[in-house]
Design a protein that fits this description.
The protein has 8 helices and 8 strands; from the N terminus they run ααααββαββαββαβαβ. By secondary structure, the protein is an alpha+beta fold. The longest helix has 19 residues.
Length: about 240
């Protein structure tokens, strides 16, 4: 198995751990998707993908509909996606994806977390190059031959594909291949259970138990922030 498989296995227990936070994140994704491409999922591929993720996270249908309706309101805040970079103690690189309607607030908060936990907030581009920006799709495994599917999907950008007992079949590709893969899966009539984007560290660093605790202290503070969508790091899981 490749890096994507190991990365996913390491993060599985942490992903969407707090259901309330998951719903908040998806709600923001819906608002941004609607603002970008309109409220009709048939004509808005990004919204279609977010709605699939909402279903996978067991988000109630009325919550999804409410978020779409809210997004069409002119008074609804416009969220902006902002990337933050820095270093935790012991040389661990951290990449933070946020969705914020107040960048000054988010910058101040993120900087305070680094300062309080002996980290260093970096400049744009200081650690982003250490991570591969990928997209992923999850489809049902029933009736699928993983090896055959991999050969067929290589032409659309898929680089790694594997079966997961709990998650069905998962495929990973470069970030820019998302649209082509989504279109191909839909044209084949394959159900997309969920999809998304992740940043996989190219190299990870092993730490002692005490050092891990230092890094975890910073990660926890960052992940608790309402503006934070995802946090990636180079610490070995």
């Amino acid at each position: 198995m490749g890096r994507a498989f190991e990365f996913r296995k390491g993060r599985k227990m942490k992903r969407w751990a707090a259901m309330a936070k998951a719903f908040t994140r998806i709600g923001k994704d819906i608002v941004m998707a609607v603002k970008e491409g309109g409220p009709n999922p048939e004509a808005n591929s990004r919204l279609r993908a977010v709605m699939q993720n909402a279903k996978a996270a067991n988000m109630p249908k009325e919550n999804v509909e409410r978020a779409i309706k809210k997004a069409t309101d002119k008074d609804t805040a416009n969220y902006k996606e902002v990337l933050f970079e820095g270093y935790a103690p012991h040389g661990i690189a951290i990449l933070i994806e946020t969705a914020t309607d107040n960048n000054n607030r988010t910058v101040a908060n993120i900087r305070s977390y680094f300062n309080k936990c002996n980290g260093t907030m970096g400049t744009q581009g200081s650690v982003e190059f250490m991570f591969d920006h990928t997209c992923n799709f999850r489809i049902p495994a029933a009736g699928q031959d993983v090896e055959e599917l991999e050969l067929e999907m290589i032409d659309f950008g898929v680089e790694e594909i594997f079966a997961d007992d709990e998650d069905g079949i998962v495929m990973y590709a470069p970030f820019e291949s998302f649209g082509a893969i989504q279109k191909e899966l839909e044209s084949r009539g394959l159900e997309i259970l969920s999809s998304g984007f992740e940043r996989i560290p190219q190299i990870t660093k092993e730490l002692t138990e005490a050092q891990v605790a230092d890094v975890e202290k910073l990660l926890e503070k960052i992940e608790e922030d309402d503006d934070v969508m995802n946090v990636y790091h180079t610490m070995q899981e």
